[in-house]
Each structure stands twice: as structure tokens, then as C-alpha cells.
């Protein structure tokens, strides 16, 4: 007898991941397809939408190859906010421009701020215009590629593109829309037509729905391509970090989710709308929820860079060396701004800095400094969150970086915050599967994914990390002029 199950697929920055999950939350199978975004110029990150659909179908075919489960619903998520523009026939016009790691639209941000007013944008949209926002990226395409833009009719992100391919529906979730600043009004929770027409003229914006709502059912054509049953429901989906938060139950008021991945993401659930020019105020993935969020441009990306740079076989080898290095990395301090920085610095021209290097330092010291840099960045974001009115009562960690004990321990030691770890930390694809299950059952995240352990801060490291954090906060302003000049040289 076949076991009923659901599938969740997430399109991430460095890979697409899929999971087959039983209706009780048991992870039956998982699959991954790695990819690398194109970098056509300094500060530019793009990806071909054909990759998203191809990898989705490859993942679902792999997950369903053993014919031992009956898939009854599908959930999707993806990196974002991204900008994929299509023509009147829904053919992509160019590769998608990715989220805040793509910093090309600085001039458009400045122009839109002057045109619309930064205070008005923050009040209506919940977030200031930054490289994270989708609106300026649309404006960049309109200004820099006008002939192409003249044929643009629709706007997609990875999750909504999958929904379109699977169901034929043109729909975007409210949370993703709230990161399309300045196109969406977070108070009215609808597209704001005057600014949408000014920033994205000629674009038919998608219908809006909540992440867990059904966008439609699988068409016969999509079912054949994905080896799935026709007629099963598909969630509207959302941006990956918000699906990660759902996967570990971090959507209650006072919760803070830390997502350990290629980038570090922070999502704080608040009882009422809060704004800060250094953070992102958004609507949540679920109806009635509000978030104040932050994101570092790199975290795991720096550790991957170091692994490749030093020729290490794998991360466990470097984690062991980093643990032996001890707190403070033997006097090394790193700014992890290797792709500029998002919150709370909001500086696309920031660059990575490694201070204190000597001939005695080792691979382990460098790797430890990278892990600690993430911890210092998280602490900086937390301080800004609380200064904006946030009230953090519980921290829940998720993502691939939680697999080893060292990274989460370092972050708890630096921030002084315990972190709750759930049994399954696979992340967004599992969150998508949960939303899919909730379309057809009364699945509960606490039953699906109970708490496994809690990481507690170690008091013996507090003084050392407080001292280093003070230096970390000084390092950016003390080096900003130099790295900005270097960034300008890199752009030539």
C-alpha cells in the first residue's frame, strides 16, 4: 500500500533542494541540485529561470523514482526578492536579477528616493529602498535595457515561476510582494498602483495570496514533466527564509529565526508594524503576522570561499581546526562584507576585511574568524532590531550551518542568546512541505518538528567576545573610506 506524502522544493542561491515527507513529518527522501549564479559584472548576480524549472522536475523525478509514496500536495519556495520579467507569452526576457546580493541598482535607488521621498517610502512600504528591494531592479532593467523592457508584461520570482509552470496561475504571496518596495503597501496589504505604475510601467502585477493558500492544481502537462499526479494542490509559496522560519515554528510573536546558509537571515515576528531604515519591515508569510527582518550578504559564502581558497577537503576538517583555534581566532578579526553588506550597514560598496594577520596564523584561525564575524554581524542586527522596538523572547536556528555544533555555539556566545534547534533543520524545502501538508491535513509544526536541543551561551567567553565586538564595530567606520576606494577600482 502506498504511503501518502507531500513534496517541498526550494530554489536557493547555490542549490535547489527537494524533500519527500510523510504526512506525520517524517523525512522520507531528499535530493539536491547544485548551481552557481552568473556574475556578468561587478555587483551583479543573475540566474536563468530555465534552471529553476529543470531542477524542480529533476528533483521531483528523483524523489518519486521509488514508487512507494503517493504525493498528494506540493509546496514551493525560493530565494528572493528576485526580478524575472517575461513577455506576453510568458517567455523570460533575460536571466532573473537576484535579491540583495545584486547591487547594480544604486543609481535607481537614489533616483526613486528623490522622486518618492525616503520617509514616505518607509512609512508606506515598511522598508527603505536598498539593494534588497525589487522595485529598483525593475527600474534598472527599464533604464539600461529599454528595448527588452518594452516587451515586459509580467513579474516573477522563483516560487511564483514554479507555481506558474505547475498550475498556470499568475500569483505571488503577500510576503514576497512586501519586498517589492516601493510597489506594495504593507498597511493596506495590496499593490500601490500609483508607485507601481511609476516604477514598473506596463507590468501586469500578479494576484496576491498567502503563502499557505492553494495557488491551483497541477496541470496534466506539468504532471508529466515532474512525474507527479495531475490535479493535486500546489501552495502559493514564499521566499526561502520565510519558509525556513515556518519549518521550525518561528512565527510566534517574539520569535527570532536565524537562518544559517549561504547568507545569514534574521526574521523577528512582531505584534504590530515596526520600521527601521536599517532593517526590512514586511508582512509575514501567514495572515495576520508582521516581521522586522535583516540579512547579511554573506555568511556560509565566506566559509565556502575559504574552503576553496585553502584547498581543504571539506568543512568538518576546517571546523575541527577552528575549534582548536579557540575564541578570538588568535587575534584575528573579520568584517564579512565580501559582497557588500545588507542590514544593518546597508552598504553595497562595503568589502571584506581581515585584520590582525601575522605569519603565525593558520587555516583554522581564518575559518574561526569567519564564523565569529557572522556572530558579530548577528549581534549588530539584534541590537538594531531591539532599538527599533523589537522584543526577542526566543531564538530558533535553522539551516545547513546548524549541523555542526561550533557555529551555533559561537553565535550564542557572542550574542548571549540561547538558540533552539529543532529535529529537522533542512530548512525551506521542509517548510514548503509543511505548508503543502496543511492544504490537505491538520499538520502541526510542533508535531512534525519537535525541539531537539538548545544551545546555551558559555559565560567564560563573554568578556573576550565583548572586547572583540567593540573592535568589530569600530573596524567598519575606520576602514570604510579605504574599502570604498577599492570597490571603485574593482568596478572599473
UniProtKB/TrEMBL annotation:
Top-rank EC class of the record's enzyme: transferase
One term of GO molecular function: kinase activity
Recorded superkingdom: Bacteria
Name of the featured protein: FGGY-family carbohydrate kinase
EC number annotated for this UniProt entry: 2.7.1.-
This protein's record includes keyword Secreted: no
Family label: Belongs to the FGGY kinase family.
Keywords: Carbohydrate metabolism, Kinase, Transferase, Xylose metabolism
Domain Carbohydrate kinase FGGY C-terminal: 257-437
Pfam families linked: FGGY_C, FGGY_N
Domain Carbohydrate kinase FGGY N-terminal: 6-245
Amino acid at each position: 500500500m502506498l504511503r501518502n506524502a507531500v513534496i517541498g522544493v526550494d530554489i536557493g542561491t547555490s542549490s535547489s533542494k527537494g524533500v519527500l515527507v510523510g504526512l506525520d513529518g517524517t523525512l522520507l527522501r531528499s535530493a539536491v541540485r547544485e548551481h552557481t549564479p552568473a556574475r556578468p559584472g561587478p555587483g551583479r548576480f543573475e540566474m536563468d529561470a530555465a534552471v529553476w524549472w529543470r531542477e524542480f522536475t529533476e528533483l521531483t523525478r528523483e524523489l518519486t523514482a521509488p514508487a512507494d509514496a503517493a504525493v498528494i500536495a506540493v509546496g514551493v519556495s525560493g530565494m528572493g526578492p528576485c526580478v524575472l520579467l517575461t513577455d506576453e507569452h510568458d517567455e523570460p526576457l533575460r536571466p532573473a536579477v537576484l535579491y540583495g546580493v545584486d547591487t547594480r541598482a544604486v543609481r535607481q535607488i537614489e533616483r526613486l528616493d528623490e522622486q518618492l521621498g525616503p520617509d514616505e517610502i518607509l512609512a508606506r512600504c515598511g522598508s527603505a529602498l536598498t539593494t534588497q528591494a525589487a522595485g529598483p531592479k525593475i527600474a534598472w532593467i527599464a533604464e539600461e535595457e529599454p528595448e527588452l523592457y518594452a516587451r515586459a508584461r509580467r513579474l516573477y520570482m522563483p516560487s511564483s515561476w514554479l507555481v506558474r509552470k505547475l498550475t498556470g496561475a499568475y500569483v505571488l504571496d503577500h510576503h514576497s510582494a512586501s519586498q517589492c518596495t516601493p510597489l506594495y503597501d504593507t498597511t493596506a496589504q495590496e499593490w500601490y498602483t500609483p508607485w507601481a505604475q511609476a516604477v514598473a510601467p506596463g507590468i501586469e502585477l500578479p494576484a496576491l495570496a498567502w503563502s499557505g493558500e492553494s495557488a491551483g492544481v497541477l496541470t496534466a502537462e506539468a504532471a508529466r514533466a515532474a512525474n507527479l499526479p495531475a490535479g493535486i494542490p500546489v501552495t502559493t509559496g514564499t521566499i526561502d527564509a520565510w519558509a525556513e522560519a515556518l519549518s521550525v515554528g518561528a512565527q510566534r510573536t517574539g520569535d527570532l529565526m536565524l537562518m544559517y546558509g549561504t547568507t545569514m537571515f534574521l526574521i523577528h515576528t512582531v505584534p504590530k508594524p515596526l520600521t527601521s531604515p536599517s532593517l526590512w519591515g514586511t508582512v509575514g508569510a501567514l495572515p495576520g503576522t508582521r516581521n522586522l527582518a535583516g540579512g547579511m550578504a554573506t555568511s556560509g559564502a565566506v566559509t565556502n570561499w575559504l574552503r576553496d581558497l585553502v584547498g581543504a577537503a571539506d568543512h568538518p576538517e576546517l571546523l575541527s581546526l577552528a575549534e582548536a583555534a579557540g575564541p578570538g581566532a588568535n587575534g584575528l578579526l573579520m568584517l564579512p562584507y565580501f559582497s557588500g553588506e545588507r542590514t544593518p550597514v546597508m552598504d553595497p560598496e562595503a568589502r571584506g576585511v581581515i585584520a590582525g594577520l601575522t605569519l603565525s596564523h593558520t587555516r583554522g584561525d581564518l575559518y574561526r574568524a569567519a564564523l565569529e564575524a557572522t556572530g558579530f554581524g548577528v549581534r549588530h542586527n539584534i541590537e538594531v532590531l531591539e532599538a527599533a522596538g523589537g522584543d526577542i523572547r526566543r531564538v530558533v536556528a535553522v539551516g545547513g550551518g546548524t549541523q555542526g555544533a561550533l557555529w551555533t555555539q559561537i553565535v550564542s556566545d557572542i550574542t548571549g542568546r540561547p538558540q533552539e534547534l529543532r529535529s529537522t533543520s533542512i530548512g525551506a524545502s521542509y517548510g514548503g512541505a509543511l505548508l503543502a501538508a496543511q492544504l490537505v491535513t491538520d499538520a502541526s509544526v510542533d508535531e512534525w518538528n519537535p525541539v531537539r536541543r538548545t544551545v546555551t551561551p558559555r559565560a567564560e567567553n563573554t568578556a573576550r567576545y565583548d572586547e572583540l565586538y567593540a573592535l568589530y564595530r569600530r573596524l567598519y567606520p575606520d576602514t570604510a573610506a579605504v574599502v570604498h576606494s577599492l570597490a571603485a577600482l574593482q568596478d572599473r
